[in-house]
Prior knowledge:
single chain; TIM Barrel; eight-stranded parallel sheet; globular
Amino acid sequence: MIDSHCHLADETFAGDLEAVVSRAQTAGLERLCTILEAGNATEAAQAERLEHLWPDVRFAIGVHPHQAHEFASDPNRAVTIVREQLRATPGARAVGEIGLDYHYEFSPRDVQHAVFRGQVRLARECGLPVVIHTRDADADTIRILEEEGDGDVRGVVHCFTGGAALADRALALGLYISLAGIITFPKAAELRAVVSRLPIDRLLTETDSPFLAPVPHRGTRNEPAYVVRIIDALAELQGVSARDMAQRTGSNFHALFRP
């Protein structure tokens, strides 16, 4: 099993990181990918701690749309910071999470677009996949990936909660789709219906911890060990065994991130 997207460098895990890693390994996780906010020294320091505890951990580094406003005067500076941190992080395997968020709009849309475009171009330059965040911005997210990816972008739409139209367009671009604990929520019937028809060779599993803990842990801090619940739910939706789902999504992770 693999948690393809978590935030173990978040301060939420600072006090018990060793125990969180131990529980993940005991649960049977082979590996995980931790998301790092580019330029965040505190997260970078905790990432070093994490790598010491679990050498097989991998990282994605990027400027989230919520932080894009910090680069409003010079969007290229975001690209420079990500590039430098990628070079300094041996375990880095992706640019992300990056994308667009029109739900909160902590950053102006034009700034989000510029920062997103620059990072997609950087990923292509480095030969790395992108980890995509899109919320209430699906049409623009896909359009920018089409324009900047030029048919050559690899990546994953993380924490997928969209409909069939977004799934189809993402798959047409060659992207993977990652499912988190939301698929276990009682009110997520429409999402489960979409997920049940997705090709198994394009699926990944994630926790997005410390957020979105799956049932029966909902309302508590999420952590990588709980990816077991997502595996079980996804296996039921796809009509395969949990063991097969773990193997297939693990193979998909390796194909995309080439760890």
